[in-house]
């Protein structure tokens, strides 16, 4: 990866000389705040900050930015942060209530992006009530000197993303847009991981569908289709927002960061192709499973019909001789009864061999 410029921020010696330590006892402003950090020249300032103190420090320096991470805040918890950073009330409402489609909106000098997060739920045996894909949401408010992330769901925490970005000071020096890229890249990478896991499940089902003498429950195929629909709802709507971020239609994103968004967009296209392929394959497997079930039913019906034909032959002969007419062949013959039984047995054996040769039995 080529080195990225620091966009004219102050050198590290100056930054280290005026770094201030904050007391560890400073409380966060809301209970939903997971982390709040101040970043100058790509490095995080030491200490514990409230969101108001953090943004005041950044604006006093006229450089750097603040990254505040929230987890499932309510309206009361997010109001103070929204007022401090000047967040639009409609975007704040979306961030609180969640259940949004992936999108990218601009409110004055603030970008608001919604991403769907997914997690593969591993289970030993698939059943009709299994959950394969668990979804959540990530919202990001991006301004010229701040990033506010809001997470909904038990998975997709951003601690690892924050740690990786903090280790790459050149990337962080690009500002809030670099954080937005890191989040988008992380989310799309999880899509790839989920599709890899789903591919294994589909391969297993496919092998079972075409295995001899086995029947796949159609409920499992419908389950896979339903869970795949959840993944499609997360992936497909994200295409246009990423294209906007990578094509230069958003002036708040520097050119150095746009190239990284193009890479994320390429990965998303790979995921979209996989999801479309999975959907087509599952449709084919459902048709194949249906035909296999129909073939099994036809085979059973042929077997039943063959046995009915075999049984009906001695029944017919016994029925004729059961009419008790006096002038019937061999009724007075001493060997008439065993000969009749022999004819019945021979007829049954002949019919059995004919049906077996024709693979009805």
Describe the 3D structure.
The structure is a single chain. The chain is an alpha+beta fold and 361 residues long. Among the domains are: 187 residues, CorA soluble domain-like (Beta Polymerase, domain 2), CATH 3.30.460.20; 65 residues, Magnesium transport protein CorA, transmembrane region (Methane Monooxygenase Hydroxylase, Chain G, domain 1, Up-down Bundle). It has a 7-stranded mixed beta sheet with strand order 2-1-3-7-6-5-4, with helices on both faces. Helix 7 packs parallel to helix 10, helix 9 runs antiparallel to helix 10 and helix 10 packs antiparallel against helix 11. The relative contact order is 0.09.
β-strand percent reads 5-15%
Report Rg. 35 Å
CATH class of one domain: Alpha Beta
Low-confidence stretches: 1-30
Number of E strands: 7
Largest sheet: 7 strands, mixed
CATH topology of one domain, what is it called?
Beta Polymerase, domain 2
Which architecture of one domain would the CATH scheme give at its second level? 2-Layer Sandwich
Amount of helix: 55-70%
CATH superfamily of one domain: CorA soluble domain-like
Outline: rod-shaped
Which sequence of strands runs across the widest sheet? 2-1-3-7-6-5-4
Class by helix and strand content? alpha+beta
Structure annotation, total helices = 11
Q: Termini distance? A: 68 Å
Q: What is the ordering of alpha helices and beta strands? A: HEEHEHHEEEEHHHHHHH
**Global mean pLDDT:** 81
GO molecular function, one term: magnesium ion transmembrane transporter activity
Keywords: Cell membrane, Ion transport, Magnesium, Membrane, Transmembrane, Transmembrane helix, Transport
Protein name: Magnesium transporter
Membrane topology: Multi-pass membrane protein
């Amino acid at each position: 990866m080529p080195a990225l410029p620091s966009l004219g921020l102050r050198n590290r010696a100056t930054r280290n000389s005026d770094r201030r330590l904050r007391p560890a006892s400073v409380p966060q402003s809301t209970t939903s705040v997971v982390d709040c950090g101040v970043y100058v020249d790509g490095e995080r300032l030491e200490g514990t900050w409230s969101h108001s103190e953090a943004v005041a420090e950044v604006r006093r320096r006229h450089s750097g930015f603040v990254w505040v991470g929230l987890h499932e805040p309510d309206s009361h918890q997010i109001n103070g942060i929204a007022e401090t950073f000047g967040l639009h009330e409609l975007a704040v409402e979306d961030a609180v209530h969640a259940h949004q489609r992936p999108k990218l909106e601009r409110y004055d000098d603030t970008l608001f992006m919604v991403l769907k997060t997914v997690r593969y739920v591993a289970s030993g045996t698939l059943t009709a009530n299994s959950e394969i894909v668990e979804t959540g949401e990530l919202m990001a408010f991006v301004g010229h000197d701040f990033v506010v992330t809001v997470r909904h769901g038990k998975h997709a925490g951003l601690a690892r993303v924050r740690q990786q970005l903090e280790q790459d000071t050149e990337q962080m020096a690009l500002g809030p847009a670099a954080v937005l890229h890191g989040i988008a890249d992380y989310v799309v990478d999880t899509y790839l991981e989920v599709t890899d896991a789903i591919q294994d499940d589909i391969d297993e089902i496919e092998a079972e569908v075409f295995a001899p003498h086995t029947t796949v429950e159609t409920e499992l195929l419908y389950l896979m289709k339903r869970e795949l629909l959840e993944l499609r709802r997360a992936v497909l709507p994200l295409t246009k927002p990423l294209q906007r971020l990578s094509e230069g239609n958003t002036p708040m994103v520097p050119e150095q960061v746009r190239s990284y968004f193009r890479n994320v967009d390429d990965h998303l296209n790979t995921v979209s192709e996989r999801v479309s392929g999975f959907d087509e394959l599952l449709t084919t497997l459902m048709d194949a499973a249906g035909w296999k079930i129909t073939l099994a039913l036809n085979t059973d019906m042929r077997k039943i019909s063959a046995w009915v034909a075999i049984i009906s032959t001695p029944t017919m002969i016994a029925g004729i001789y059961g009419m008790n007419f006096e002038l019937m062949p061999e009724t007075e013959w001493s060997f008439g009864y065993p000969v009749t039984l022999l004819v019945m047995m021979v007829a049954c054996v002949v019919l059995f061999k004919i049906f077996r040769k024709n693979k009805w039995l």
